[in-house]
Design goal:
The chain is α/β, with parallel strands linked by helices. The protein has 2 domains: about 1-110, Enolase-like, N-terminal domain (Enolase-like, domain 1); about 115-335, TIM Barrel. The chain has 12 helices and 18 strands. A hairpin with a 2-residue loop joins strand 16 (about 320) and strand 17 (about 325). Helix 1 (about 55-65) packs across helix 3, helix 5 packs parallel to helix 6 and helix 9 (about 235-240) runs parallel beside helix 11. The longest helix has 19 residues, at about 90-110. The radius of gyration is 19 Å and the shape is globular. The relative contact order is 0.16. The model has no long low-confidence stretch (mean pLDDT about 95).
């Protein structure tokens, strides 16, 4: 197998901001896996939240090239080897994992979702409203509603949360997911969350720093909304650790390492009676297609990374209002727009 890659920069339509950081552009790595005349593609979306970077991902890919073997169908043992050698670079593993599944699907001429024995992906996604001044919030909400999105995810954790949420609730009465991105301390979070009840949140995501996960159970007991873990839940073992402390987990491929590891996390969560959400970072459709391929297995999807872009360099994911879907195209179902 031949593994090559190149950097690509994608640009969100509006600056994307959370309680701790903001981006005007995101640099990703496009992975190409070639074997027997067939090419599979994957996208790496590194995050410094997890000690990842484009440079570290590329360095890991150099080493991964020697670990692939000569059988692209052997995805499970390949990914296991990658984890054993590069456990700290799960974003890079996710890109290779995606390229392997894409290769197999293209080689067998079936979409990845069908290869996995799953239903055709057709899932409601939230559209994320990042932190911004109030005039920009109005613009973002108007754009989202005009585009037909019927579930919104809002970044919170700053002083003008209530002004932001009031503007949104004045215009929108549907599902509203709130993401605090570790914004609060354990002693202030109960009051913060109780004050959010008036906005009827569908769920509240990662209100505390990931190291404060033991305090999440107290926030869950408030009954304001289901509490989901994001930054506190990276790998399959984290799902079991969080059982009883949260209602659900947000699985992102950048954190866990791709389809193979995500399926393990979903299975564990379901066994323990926990809800599951699929999340993403700002990225192209190529990075969204793998989680969308397994989206029929989860409760909630926040797979709007490509929808936040000014110009998505890949095509293949269909959207009708707030519903995104994949068709019968072999592999991951996406291709370069050019």
């Amino acid at each position: 197998m031949k593994l090559t890659w190149n950097r690509m920069t994608v640009h969100p339509r509006h600056r994307f901001t959370t309680a701790h950081w903001g981006v005007d552009e995101t640099e990703v790595v496009i992975v190409r896996l070639e074997h027997d005349g067939v090419v599979g593609l994957g996208e790496i979306v590194p995050s410094d939240l997890y000690g990842q970077s484009v440079a570290a991902s590329e360095a890991a890919l150099e080493s991964m090239s020697t670990l692939l073997g000569d059988d692209p169908f052997a995805i499970d043992p390949i990914v296991q080897r990658l984890i054993e050698h590069h456990d700290d670079q799960r974003a890079a593993i996710s890109g290779v994992d995606a390229a392997l599944y894409d290769w197999v699907g293209r080689r067998l001429e079936v979409p990845v979702w069908k290869l996995l024995g799953l239903a055709r992906p057709r899932k409601q996604t939230t559209f994320t409203i990042g932190i911004a001044d109030l005039s920009e919030i109005r613009v973002k909400v108007d754009e989202a509603l005009a585009a037909g999105f019927d579930a919104l995810k809002v970044k919170v954790g700053i002083e003008h949360d209530h002004e932001t949420l009031s503007i949104i609730r004045d215009a929108f009465d549907g599902p509203l997911l709130l993401d605090a991105n570790e914004a609060w301390e354990p002693d202030e979070a109960p009051e913060k969350i109780q004050a959010l009840a008036r906005y009827r949140p569908t769920m509240i995501e990662q209100p505390l720093k990931k190291e404060d996960w033991r305090h999440l159970a107290a926030l869950r007991s408030l009954g304001v909304a289901p509490i989901f873990a994001d930054e506190a839940c990276e790998r399959p073992a984290d799902v079991a650790r969080l059982h009883g402390y949260v209602d659900g987990v947000n699985i992102k491929f950048t954190k866990c390492g791709g389809i193979r590891e995500a399926l393990r996390m979903i299975s564990t969560a379901r066994t323990l009676g926990m809800q599951v959400m699929l999340g993403c970072f700002v990225s192209s459709s190529l990075a969204i297609a793998p989680p969308l391929s397994v989206a029929s297995l989860v409760d909630l999807a926040d797979l709007d990374g490509h929808l936040l872009l000014a110009d998505d360099p890949f095509t293949g994911i269909e959207r009708e209002g707030g519903i995104i879907s994949l068709g019968d195209t072999p592999g991951l179902g996406v291709a370069p727009r050019d």
